[in-house]
Amino acid sequence: MDGVIIDSNPVHREAWVEYNLRHGVETTEAMHQHMYGKRNDAIIRDFLGHHLTDAEVHEHSDRKEALYRELMRPRVAEALVPGLRQFLARHRDVPMGVASNANAENVRFVLEQAGLGPFFRVAVSGGEVPRGKPFPDIFLRVAQLLEVPAEECVVFEDSATGVEAGLRAGMPVVGLSTTHDELAGVSILVRDFLDPALAAWLANGS
Predict the structure, then answer these.
(1) What is the pLDDT, as a whole number, of residue 33?
(2) Which of 27, 53, 69, 97: CA 20 to 30 A from 119?
(3) Handedness of CA 45, 166, 104, 108 (dihedral sign)
(4) Which contacts (CB < 8 Å, 24+ apart) does range 179-187 have?
(5) Nearest by Cα to 17 from 47, 37, 40, 57
(6) 102-142 residue pLDDT tens
(7) SS3 21
């Protein structure tokens, strides 16, 4: 979702800077780069300390994501990745699902605020699988819910951990350069859903 459906990483960066400052932590660029594609439980322990209990991590996660949604709410429409809505409409007969390391509330927030919910038959958040990306659990779970064999699925990803998860699930991966200019292992790298290379790749049977 983040970086694929919506270019939310700039707002997540803003939210992390503000949230970490509240706890006496200055967020570096290296920390920003480290958090892309990871689940909040891992990010929070990296940022605020590995001594935190699971309950404390959960509380920090809820508070940080509430701040993110507050910052993102007026920006959702303008932050959608270019061409996304047209792409989803064009392929609405294909079973599609969201597989995001984000928490469930953020997934609901984006899909509802953007009016994209009807396009997706299932949505699985990071807390609904035992292991987050780069493990393949979330993609395999979505494939299972869609009742589509893993090898017949195509993953769209913007992060290295997401690409790794897709490949480990046995799925070809389309990379979007919303977050990184290069993504190793992808079948094709496109700038957004308007990129003509994407349509050509799909037309050739991926």
Answers:
(1) 87
(2) 69
(3) positive
(4) 179/3, 179/9, 179/36, 180/36, 183/157, 183/158, 183/159, 184/160, 186/157
(5) 47
(6) 889 999 999 999 999 999 999 999 889 999 899 999 999 99
(7) helix
CA gap 57, 112 in Å, rounded = 26
Q: How far apart are CA 168 and CA 136, in angstroms?
A: 6
Give the tokens for residue 46.
């990296």
Written as six digits, the tokens of 45 are: 């322990």
Q: What is the per-residue pLDDT across 156-200, written as a single tens digit (0 to 9) for each?
A: 999 999 999 999 999 999 999 999 999 999 999 999 999 999 999
For 100, phi then psi, to 5°, come to -130, 140
Q: Residue for token digits 């706890």?
A: 23
Q: Examine the pLDDT at 25 and tell me if it is beyond 70.
A: yes
Residue closest to 167 by CA, chosen among 142, 147, 186: 186
Which domains does the chain show, CATH number per domain? 9-75 (1.10.150), 77-203 (3.40.50.1000)
**What token pair was written down for 149?**
């064999």
Does residue 174 contact residue 155 with C-beta atoms inside 8 Å? yes
